[in-house]
Design goal:
Shape: globular
Bound molecules: ligand MTE, molybdenum atom
Structural class: alpha+beta
Helix content: 10-25%
Number of strands: 23
Number of domains: 2
Largest sheet: 5 strands, mixed
Oligomer: single chain
Strand content: 25-35%
CATH superfamily of the largest domain: Oxidoreductase, molybdopterin-binding domain
CATH topology of the largest domain: Sulfite Oxidase, Chain A, domain 2
């Protein structure tokens, strides 16, 4: 479980160059007085005209039973992997289109190993057995009678961004890093269930199993189960979507996506990990020396600039606010630094409150684009002191044989026309 990248990337965080940042920010404040380019158009619906939609009644309730986004937002959708896979197994969140840190339920990424089971909640049960005083079987209504909590946490697939180990593939943040989403989850702390069942002192590991045809099964250490693990039945206020594990899912905040067992049906307590398929033939990390790391649970600190980002275009010189998200499976984000010169110099970004542990944290920084080509990067630092590594550093430590836990700094190239593309800088 020990991590090499921690050791190699904890160093070399130059103090942010504050004076330079302030100088840039005041230049930026002046530039903000310039009206946005869109107002220069002279359409019939623009001031001083009264727009057509003010002159007649609107349409009746568009979708009264369950609301939908404006039809003008029809391109803000999940996408299948690019390049297309023979057997697509996941969809990606349009990170660069989202303005807050919570992922709307219809845009939450998906990763299924045997598609989506359609489970009748009345016939779903959670069994807790093994090294317990009282084996228990919970119905959904029994679970929902227990004291509940709301917690905001991200889930990131361990294989997110894995193509980056070899070459820059996707164009957009969605294509490159979209196996990542963040929600407010509601459910019961797993520690409550384990106390109900009376976990025996010798129980050190839990086997957690899903009810899908993949019978997704992972071993979870007791410390995590008693710390912040939850069994959740709601996301962003409504019951889980079928794709997210309806009616019940395991939530292990900050741990690799795969361990967050959907359609959770069974928890067995034992003394040892089970070495299931998902922790032997997959979700282990092959290192350059031929050994494999196993049980690399926490997703390490990572960040990505979303505005501007791949596929977008800067159409004016002058002020732009850099926007992005940062996250760490080890706790809170303590700082995000931005470079506009391919990592030569760094300045501090502003973090958006609330900054929660193991949750997406939005960051912003003022930037004055002078119209010259440049490379934009962000790097996240978390409360353990971990610094998001450069790609070179990550690969020096881990090689390129592994396809999991890629968390290197993302580079966006900005050309003289304002076009933004994905590069390895
Ligand atoms: N039962 C079950 N749980 C599962 C999976 C699965 O296929 N079956 N996929 C796992 C993987 S690999 C990931 S990354 C996350 C994805 O969660 P999401 O589809 O809600 O985004 O669920 C995990 N839990
Ligand atoms: Mo995953």
């Amino acid at each position: 479980m020990d991590d090499k990248v921690d050791d190699v990337s904890r160093d070399d965080v130059p103090a942010p160059s504050r004076r330079k940042f302030l100088a840039q920010a005041s230049a930026a404040a002046g530039a903000m007085a310039v009206p946005p380019a869109a107002l220069a158009e002279n359409g019939a619906n623009l001031p001083p005209n009264v727009p057509e939609w003010s002159r007649t009644q609107g349409r009746p309730f568009l979708s009264p039973a369950y609301g939908l986004p404006s039809p003008f937002e029809k391109d803000v959708v999940r996408v299948l992997p690019n390049p297309p896979a023979a057997f697509p197994t996941g969809t990606r969140t349009p990170l660069q289109e989202l303005k807050g840190s919570i992922t709307p339920n219809g845009l939450f990424f998906e990763r299924h190993h045997a598609n989506v089971p359609m489970i009748d909640p009345r016939e779903h049960r959670l069994m807790v057995h093994g090294l317990v005083e009282r084996p228990l079987i919970f119905s959904m209504s029994e679970l929902m009678r227990l004291p509940a909590v709301n917690r905001i946490h991200f889930i990131e697939c361990a294989g997110n961004s894995s193509a980056e180990f070899t070459r820059p593939t996707g164009k957009t943040a969605q294509e490159v890093h979209g196996l990542l989403s963040n929600a407010e989850w509601t459910g019961v702390m797993l520690s409550v269930l384990l106390r109900e069942a009376g976990a025996r002192p010798e129980a050190r590991w839990l086997l957690c199993e899903g009810a899908d045809a993949a019978s997704m099964t992972r071993s979870v250490p007791m410390e995590k189960a008693m710390d912040d693990a939850m069994v959740v039945y709601a996301q962003n206020g409504e019951r889980l979507r079928p794709e997210q594990g309806y009616p019940l899912r395991l939530l292990l905040p900050g741990f690799e996506g795969n361990m967050n067992i959907k359609w959770l049906r069974r928890i067995k307590l034992g003394t040892q990990p089970w070495h299931t398929r998902e922790e032997t033939s997959t979700y282990t990390d092959l290192m350059p020396d031929g050994t494999a790391r196993q049980f690399t649970f926490a997703m390490e600190a990572k960040s990505c600039v979303l505005s501007p980002s791949g596929g977008q275009k800067l159409d004016v010189h002058g002020y732009h606010e850099i926007y992005g998200v940062a996250w760490s499976g080890r706790g809170r984000i303590t700082a995000v630094e931005i470079s506009t010169d391919a990592g030569k110099t760094w300045q501090r970004a502003r973090l958006q409150e609330p900054v929660l542990p193991r949750a997406l944290t939005a960051f912003r920084a003022d930037w004055h684009w002078d119209g010259k080509p440049c490379v934009l990067q962000s790097r996240a630092i978390d409360e353990t002191g971990f610094v998001q590594p450069t790609r070179a550093r990550l690969i020096a430590a881990r090689g390129t044989a592994s396809s999991y836990h890629y968390n290197a700094i993302q580079s966006w190239n900005i050309d003289a026309n304002g076009g933004v593309t994905h590069v390895h800088a």
